[in-house]
Amino acid sequence: MKELNMKNFEDFGLSPALAQALAHMKYTIPTPIQAQAIPLALAGHDIMGTAQTGTGKTAAFAIPLIEKLLSNPTGSALVLTPTRELGKQIMDIMHQLLGPKSPIKTAFIIGGEPMGKQLSQLQARPRLIVGTPGRINDHLERGSMMLRETHFLVLDETDRMLDMGFTIQLEKIFKFLPAERQTLMFSATLPKNILKLSEKYMNNPQRIAVGETNVVAQNIKQDVIRIEQDQKYKELMQQLYDRSGSVIVFVKTKFGADRMATNLRRDGFTSEALHGDLRQTKRDKVMQNFRKQNFRILIATDIAARGLDVPHIEHVVNYDLPQVAEDFIHRMGRTARAGAQGSAISFVSQQDGRKWHAIERLLNPDAPSASHPPRNGGDKSRKKPARFARTDKNSKPQSSGKKRFYRDNKKAA
Ligand code: AMP
Question: What is the reported pTM?
Answer without folding.
Answer: 0.65
